[in-house]
Each structure stands twice: as C-alpha cells, then as structure tokens.
Specification:
Shape: globular
Largest sheet: 5 strands, antiparallel
Structural class: alpha+beta
Helix content: 40-55%
Strand content: 15-25%
Length: about 240
C-alpha cells in the first residue's frame, strides 16, 4: 500500500469518533507500530485534528472531514459502472479493491453526486465466473506486477494438455473470457493463454526483463508502430 493510501485509510478508520490504537491500525494496514506512529505524527503535523498519544489510542475530532472530490456526473457513472464490472468479472482481490475504492469515493463526494451514483442503473453479472477463475486472476495479476514466473497445466482448444512455465506480461478481458500474454519457456515464444483452461497454477521465482521477451516486444512484433490500432499506439507510448 502506498503511503498516501495508508494515510487516507487511517483517517477513514478514525471517522465517526472511533477510538483506535496504533496496534489495531498496524494489524489492519499490515505495517509496523512504528510506521503507524510516524503516520499519525505526520497527519497531526498537517493539521488533521487527532487527539491521543501512543499507548492510549487516538480519536479524530468530530466535524473533521476530507475536502470533497469534484467529479462530473459522467465521471461518477464511469467509476460506478467500472467498479460493478470488476466486482462481477474480476478476481476476488480486484472485486474487494473496487468495493473499497468506491467506499472511499463515496465518503468524500458531495451528497448530490453520491445520490446520483446510487441511482445509476448500470449493472454487471458474472454468472459464469467460477471461484477458481477469480482466484487465478488474482494470482496472475500479482505475478505480472511482481515479475514472477508462473507454472500451470494448460489445455488448448483441441484438448491437448501440457505443463507450462511462463513469464506473465499482461492481462486482457474479452467480455466473458480472461486471457493473459506471457513468454512461454516451453515454446520459446510469446503465447496467449485462456485463464479458464488453466489448472494447478503456482507462482515461482522473480525474473528480470529480457530484450525480445517484453510486453513492448510483443506489441511491436506484428505492428511495429501501432499504426493499425490507435489504442495500441497509446499503450506503446506508455511502456
């Protein structure tokens, strides 16, 4: 968790006059007591009205609130719709993250925008999302983020089964099916895998990017400048 997110979360946990302890905050945020003490001191130094001290607990003075976030109606609609889509079709951690993100936004927007978001009639239902697929999505996302290899059993469209060890690079959602692209050690080339055809998934050792085996190389192989697709060109510029 980024420090800015942690400071925001501390304030949220103290809202409503709730007394909290450094130990309780540390367990909730998965950091050390020392880190919480430092964060509390920093919040107090910036003017957040926190009362209390180490060993006794802390309380946020009543009436304190974060400044409201300014969103347009279209932006709120996009955020709510996106969160509902992730909740329906994402991994378990992704879904929880979407819920928490919306709760944070809900806490700091004005009443009118909050009401608009709750009235939004845009819904998503992940009817075919099995729990094991949701769990696999979280594992893949974490491996992409931390540059860790993945090993898994894979069944292709013809039913042939192989054991793969790959370097995961990115994930794609196609409406009902999730895939991810990786450098496959078995094929010594890029491969796209369907998550619903995987089994016995496990994270492995960390790897370092290798020239010719990166996500940029994958994108550029068939379309060097991304001219066939503006979205691809924009993605290449960000890599």
């Amino acid at each position: 968790m980024r420090r800015a997110d942690r400071l925001f979360e501390i304030v949220q946990l103290m809202r409503g006059g709730r007394k909290v302890t450094a130990r309780g905050l540390a367990e909730r945020l998965e950091v050390s007591d020392r880190t919480v003490y430092r964060d509390i001191a920093d919040l107090m130094a910036t003017g957040v009205p926190i009362e209390g001290e180490a060993g006794f607990g802390y309380v946020l003075q009543e009436g304190y609130d974060l400044p409201p976030l300014m969103f347009t109606r279209a932006e709120i609609a996009a955020l709510v719709a996106g969160a509902r889509l992730v909740r329906a079709w994402g991994g378990l951690e992704m879904a929880r993250g979407a819920e928490e993100a919306m709760a944070k936004i809900d806490a700091v927007i004005d009443d009118d925008l909050r009401a608009r978001g709750r009235r939004l009639q845009v819904h998503a239902f992940g009817i075919d999302m099995a729990p094991e697929i949701r769990a696999a999505l979280d594992v893949i996302e974490a491996a992409v983020e931390s540059s860790e290899t993945l090993s898994f059993d894979y069944r292709d469209g013809a039913g042939a089964e192989t054991r793969r060890v790959v370097r995961p690079l990115g994930m794609w959602f196609w409406g009902r099916v999730w895939t991810f692209v990786a450098w496959c050690e078995l094929r010594e080339d890029f491969r796209m895998f369907r998550v619903d055809r995987m089994g016995a998934l496990a994270r492995g050792a960390r790897y370092k990017p290798v020239k010719g085996q990166t996500l940029r190389d994958f994108y550029q192989r068939d379309d060097p400048r991304g001219e066939a697709c503006p979205e691809l060109a924009a993605t290449l510029r960000q890599l």
